[in-house]
Amino acid sequence: MSGTELAATIVKETAERAAEFERRTGTKPCLATVLVGDDPASVTYVKMKRNRSAKAGITSRHVPLPAETTTEELVATIRELSADPAVHGILLQHPVPAHIDERAAFEAIAPEKDVDGVTMHSFAAMSFAEPGFASCTPGGIMRLLDAYGVDPRGKHAVVIGRSPILGKPAAMLLLARDATVTVCHSRTQDLPSIVRTADIVVAAVGKPEFVRGDWIKPGAVVIDAGYNEGNVGDVAYAEALAHAALITPVPGGVGPTTIALLLEQTVTAAFAAS
Ligand SMILES: Nc1nc(=O)c2c([nH]1)NC[C@@H]1CN(c3ccc(C(=O)N[C@@H](CCC(=O)O)C(=O)O)cc3)C=[N+]21
């Protein structure tokens, strides 16, 4: 499954909508990117997001904050962006330094600007299949399934990982589409035998090549949402390829669709505010 190809389609449509927004309002859609500290991987990801925004006709306002920023300072900064009519979407890059209350910081994002889908409001909307912004990586995963004709209805989906912006919302989106969902995590016993019953596997663990080929049921659909150092996924790709009907590569799978969704949702937020 090519995320690169799907992302190109989404970004092309998004760029056309961004141009239409600019014709109508005289300004471009604007995404604020907030980065606390200077973790090299995070710096790279935020740069990628801003570059792709620019190419799609979306401006970005970058807000770099020192690693020592307090929760109160971060919350205040995000509240200002939430109140600023020139800003249509807000991305707070995860993870933030350990001393910061990340949930409090996410919740300072106004729901109508939560284009990254990280607030409790967005999580509830995803869970109840109500309109709202999807968490970008899980939303991108659903778009990949749709693009490749995989209907989750009645299928056993096994999500490995329960993080707030990946595993947990992915499970909610799959459940909203009538999959039978099992969420596995670090305390799960006998993970391989659970994964062996999956029609759809979503790997969101954060451990390179953790999911092995002999865990994959023949004909299963394998989504690798891992982004480990050196562009290595959570799935042993060559092994899993031998068993899976469809599988996403890393790079070129889930990653590009994540960014495409962020841009698409930013333009949607801009139109909704205008
Ligand atoms: N609030 C928040 N929202 C996020 O969505 C979020 C985040 N924090 N923190 C970090 C993770 C990571 N992430 C990636 C996005 C795209 C690629 C991506 O496109 N990777 C390319 C490879 C890299 C390259 O092309 O250089 C690919 O898979 O093809 C990877 C990782 C979003 N994240």
Automatic annotation (TrEMBL):
Gene Ontology terms: cellular component: cytosol
Alphabetical list of Pfam families matching this protein: THF_DHG_CYH (PF00763), THF_DHG_CYH_C (PF02882)
Keywords: Amino-acid biosynthesis, Histidine biosynthesis, Hydrolase, Methionine biosynthesis, Multifunctional enzyme, NADP, One-carbon metabolism, Oxidoreductase, Purine biosynthesis
Source taxonomy: Bacteria, Bacillati, Actinomycetota, Actinomycetes, Pseudonocardiales
Similarity field: Belongs to the tetrahydrofolate dehydrogenase/cyclohydrolase family.
Residue ranges constituting the Tetrahydrofolate dehydrogenase/cyclohydrolase catalytic domain according to the UniProt record: 1-116
Protein name as catalogued: Bifunctional protein FolD
Binding site for NADP(+): G161, R162, S163
Domain of life: Bacteria
Single biological process term from Gene Ontology: tetrahydrofolate interconversion
Subunit record text: Homodimer.
Functional description taken from the UniProt entry: Catalyzes the oxidation of 5,10-methylenetetrahydrofolate to 5,10-methenyltetrahydrofolate and then the hydrolysis of 5,10-methenyltetrahydrofolate to 10-formyltetrahydrofolate.
Catalytic activity: (6R)-5,10-methylene-5,6,7,8-tetrahydrofolate + NADP(+) = (6R)-5,10-methenyltetrahydrofolate + NADPH; (6R)-5,10-methenyltetrahydrofolate + H2O = (6R)-10-formyltetrahydrofolate + H(+)
UniProt GO MF annotations: methenyltetrahydrofolate cyclohydrolase activity; methylenetetrahydrofolate dehydrogenase (NADP+) activity
Tetrahydrofolate dehydrogenase/cyclohydrolase NAD(P)-binding domain ranges (all copies): 135-270
Involved pathway(s): One-carbon metabolism; tetrahydrofolate interconversion
Enzyme Commission number(s): 1.5.1.5, 3.5.4.9
Annotated organism of origin: Allokutzneria albata (Kibdelosporangium albatum)
Entries under InterPro entries matching the protein: Aminoacid_DH-like_N_sf (IPR046346), NAD(P)-bd_dom_sf (IPR036291), THF_DH/CycHdrlase (IPR000672), THF_DH/CycHdrlase_cat_dom (IPR020630), THF_DH/CycHdrlase_NAD-bd_dom (IPR020631)
